[in-house]
Amino acid sequence: MVKSDEKVYPPPDDVVSSAHIQGKEYSELYRQSIENPDVFWSLQANKLLTWNKKWRSDTAICAYNFDTSLGPINIRWFEGSELNLCYNAVDRHVEAGYGDRVAFYWEGNDVEQDGKMTYQELQNLVCQISNYLKSVGIKKGDDVTIYMPMIPELPAAMLACARIGAVHSVVFAGFSAESLASRIQDSKPRLVVTATGSKRGPKEIPLKPIVDEALDICSKQGHMVEKCLVYDHHQAVSKESVNFHSGRDVWWQDAVLTQSTSCPVERMDAEAPLFKLYTSGSTGKPKAVLHTTAGYAVGAAATFKYVFDYKPGDIYWCTADCGWITGHSYVTYGPLFSCASQVLFEGVPTWPDAGRCWQIVDKLKVTIFYTAPTAIRALNAKGDSYVTKYSRSSLRLLGSVGEPINPEAWRWYYEVVGNSRCPIMDTWWQTETGAHMITPLVGSTPLKPGSATLPFFGVEPCICDEKGNEIHGEGEGLLMIKRPWPSIMRTVAGNHDRFEKTYFGMFKGMYFTGDGCRRDSDGYYWIIGRVDDVINVSGHRIGTAEVESALVGHPACAEAAVVPVEHAIKGQAIYAFVTLMEGYSHPPQDPTLKEALIGAVRKAIGAIATPDFIHWAPGLPKTRSGKIMRRILRKIAGKEEESLGDISTLADPSVVETLIALRENS
Ligand code: 6R9
């Protein structure tokens, strides 16, 4: 981590003069957003979106309670208003004469596969999907699960839900059948939308068989999904190669493309649920983060416009999948609210080689490029020639999200990818926050590599010590937020108690982010990483409890404890300590057991949760009350046993030496 007195990168003059927010404007607007949120957010909401009905002007723009001792946590923004997010993302642009503008430039996995969809075409498709959904009885408030590859039909399906008021729950198409099943089981949709499959790199990824398996699991557990709408994505996986369950399955091409291309929009209340997105926490099963309509829209629209400094003519590309929050706010909603033209990429950045992103940048003249540190490090490792082979002269702004970006990766991104011309917006935020929270603004924030810099409008961060005392000025501690911002999640669907405990149970009256953070003498924020039992693998959150429960699900595993270790490309990797059942030795005789345990995790969660290390552990370091001391396991995994600290509180301190000795055999 660099210190604050190291090199800073002020915004270039030409960038400042054309930016939406210039120089000192940021601090003035920020102050207004905190001191007078009603004025600030009314203006933004009026400017950024089209409303069927405006919010009440006789009450505060945000009504909330952040303090469990005063009653249930609740947050309401723009009360009394009505709007439809699909209308805002699509129809109003067509009405304004932009029907011919490209909404999506689709780039398939293989170089020769591509396509385009204009706003007019998107409107037609969204209406057809909406009409199909209505024809099978889906209505306002109903859940729809979407498990699809990165093709325009994925955001279109999300928008169709928003159009008719259905609540979408997109599950990343890399999750296993069991994970998908548990999400379906939790939200109980009557309909699931999927595709035959996808292709990523050299691999064909059949999706329909995974959905079949998930739906089987669900029906055994008592939830019958009535309809499964399947897009025949023949460029990746053919229709002929997948099973078809007549009565339940329906081909998209038959059922959707035959519908009428007009469909009225539902007027939605400000606080009507918009979507659920499952994310990992420190305990138990992934939780359904619930976002609602008006506040989320204002947050996504404002951050997209100001953080990326979007202007008509920009070609924007966010590499995130719609299965993650980044793909919700910065593929489906934010850019379309601005009538932007964007790239949707189904493949991987290293296929057919590590120059793919820059080939696409040159081909489509991409001006704004937003990706994750793990991708930057992976491409950096392949060498500069894959980048310098392409001109990249269209690029003007770069973005980073998902985990702290190490200054080395930042500099490579800045100097090599951006030719030292393009400022990097390092955006800190979360599934729960809905939109960017701590981020530079291109025309006003001097950059420091590795720092997400300063809070966005309306965001009031605070750093607390472990007792909940606020640290003013410079310091390090837990990152909390003191007041609601428009796009904050409203609840954990079906479990408000978990919402309150997880986010408001740490210190009274504040939202707990789960991250550790340092503030420097310039007031810049430096995110350190999760302080809870969440591992950030390639920018994706994996709960240690989920991996442990998958391991323990294997008959040979008696107990498991999972910790993060540093990884050069992924940021963090999963390191699992495994105690086998009675009768097994550590390490076990059976050489296939390690693979079998790893397989159990992939089956329960998906390939993204694959442990990189299995460490055989005849015993785990526990306190006398039986609590596993993960702090010690982290040190052993990271080969930092010289700084183990006090181990005298362990029930059996000798396990530490046994584990160190066994490390080499694992
Ligand atoms: C958007 C997203 C959230 C967690 C968050 C933090 C980490 C995200 C970051 C960052 C440092 C950044 N994180 N962006 N850490 N700098 N720019 O990633 O949402 O998947 O919910 O993850 O990711 O630890 O708490 P989500």
Automatic annotation (TrEMBL):
Q: Is ATP-binding given among the entry's keywords?
A: yes
Entry-linked InterPro entries: Ac_CoA_lig, ACAS_N, AMP-bd_C, AMP-bd_C_sf, AMP-dep_synth/lig_dom, ANL_N_sf
Q: Provide a Gene Ontology MF annotation, just one.
A: ATP binding
Q: Which residues form the Acetyl-coenzyme A synthetase N-terminal domain?
A: 26-89
GO annotation terms (biological process): acetyl-CoA biosynthetic process from acetate
Query: What keywords does the record list, in alphabetical order?
Result: ATP-binding, Ligase, Nucleotide-binding
Which intervals hold domain AMP-binding enzyme C-terminal? Answer: 546-627
What enzyme class is recorded for this protein?
ligase
Q: Which Gene3D superfamilies match?
A: 3.30.300.30, N-terminal domain of ligase-like (3.40.50.12780)
EC numbers on record:
6.2.1.1
Q: Where exactly are the transmembrane stretches of this chain? A: none
Domain AMP-dependent synthetase/ligase, residue spans:
96-489
* NCBIfam families from the UniProt entry: Ac_CoA_lig_AcsA (TIGR02188), PRK00174.1 (NF001208)
Similarity comment text for this entry:
Belongs to the ATP-dependent AMP-binding enzyme family.
UniProt protein name: acetate--CoA ligase
Q: Which organism is it from?
A: Chlamydomonas eustigma
